[in-house]
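Researcher: Structure for this, please.
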Amino acid sequence: MCIYRLWVINNKKINYLIIMIFHLIMSYYNNISSGYDELYKEEQLNKIKLILQNVKINSEDKILDVGCGTGVSWDLIPTQNIVGIDPSNELIEKSKHKKNMILGKAEKMPLRDNEFDVVISLTAIHNFEDIKKGLIEIKRVGKDKFALSILKKSKKLDFIKKEINKLFKVKKEINEGKDIIFII
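Model: Predicted structure, token format:
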């Protein structure tokens, strides 16, 4: 009984710490929002180019970008039918695409099942408050084409790779500089 109580107490502390870390990360992105595109544009464009070489996207496809930031890579995607979701209001406000963006978290997307032909997430998964739940949501809202990139230096890399391989049938892994891109 005593061990169980200790585990419950520690589990609550861990959940609290995860929430605090998530809020610190969001605070970071809110603080750098004015220079976000300058900081990340080049690497995000490189990733989207690799994705477009490996995932066929038609002009009528409906795309979801999870952890979209400012949507800096959207101009390269060959469709105007793009929706983004991000938990940072400041990044969304800085975007020229903000009318197509939703303020929200990957873990609880206000979207229909199988709504999107293609779901992408560029270097955002390691920032999810609950990675497993976020990946399950990505799978729920997507049909059959996914491109997910993970920061290689993330301490959560092995866990994320394991969860992706459990939930999806990975067609290809692309080693891209700082990230691994999963084509699903």
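Researcher: Any notable elements?
Model: The longest helix spans residues 2-31. The domain at 2-183 is CATH 3.40.50.150 (Rossmann fold).
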